[in-house]
Amino acid sequence: MADTFRAATAAARDDPRRNGSTVHLTGPGRIWVTGDLHDHTLNYRRILRAAGLDHPAANGHDQVLLQEVIHGPDQINGMDLSVRMLARCADLKRRFPQRVVVLQSNHELAQLRGERIAKEGVSVVEAFEQGINFLYGDQAPDVRDAMHGYLQALPLAARTHPADGRPGVLMTHSLPAPKHIEEFDPGVLDRDTTDTDLSPGGSAYALVWGRYHNLKVTGELAEAWGVGALVVGHQPADVGWKAVAENTLILASDHGHGQALPLDAYQHYTRDELIAALVPLASVRTD
Q1: Rounded distance, CA 105 to CA 119, Å?
Q2: Cα–Cα distance between 69 and 71 in angstroms, integer?
């Protein structure tokens, strides 16, 4: 397990499409963009089936973009065992380094930093740590150290570049809240993240934790990044998607109405065209 995380760390850092903290997506094939997964094993299998990544010898061209894969709703004796989902995604990155992107997300960052996230009065970060100890025993410190290196290496964003020169689509886990937009540095996507970036008050931290986006936030950031549309996760979307402002789409992939968004890396999309392209994960057969 530790070796898997270390190999995935190298694959994430050495991805030739990566510049700073942004992966610049290319074809051929579609990019299956997903929202928060939160250890939803069935939807994970559906995502891999849709992208043709569901068997060891997968040789297609479709890609997947995953985010916030840990901290599912189910615990066993107070333990969160979703480190196994984190490892599955890391192994996928190891095996298919240029067909898989895993984005930095607030739950992964909280796990890296040891911050508390409570659900129904229970700290999922502490439950996750107990799960690592239960699964790996004496080897838990080595697994945890390798996992932390992997989480530190995750990119903040991925983006497309339409062939006709029009603005592309940018995917991040979230966007800074309106109250933090003035001090937010959009250039954080163009550099490797530092501990300062990933700490409270830092721009990467603000990026993955922000909520309540409005037209000022989405408009200013789309202009700063030179994109026409933004796709994020992080916020609830009961039907698997939610439109924000005029250029932003929230995705969720962690429940029965979860959605995925297949994109052509070289095509221009408006927000409404993104909505029209959505695929319900329940429609993807896994048998």
Answers
A1: 17
A2: 7
For residue 286, give the amino acid letter: T
Residue 36, domain CATH: 3.60.21.10
Going by C-alpha positions, the residue among 153, 250, 238, 253 that lies closest to residue 204 is 153
Q: Which of 65, 104, 67 has its CA nearest to residue 189?
A: 104
Domain count, the chain: 1
> For residue range 242-286, what is the model confidence (pLDDT) as tens digits?
999 899 999 999 999 999 999 999 999 999 999 999 999 999 988
Show the domain range for 173: 2-283
Burial class (CB in 10 A: 0-12, 13-18, 19+), 31: buried
The token duo for 202 is 């830092």
The residue type found at 240 is G
- Ramachandran region, residue 84 (left: φ > 0; alpha: ψ -120 to 50; beta: rest): alpha
Name the phi and psi angles at 79, rounded to 5: -110, 140
- Cβ–Cβ under 8 Å, residues 182 and 146: no
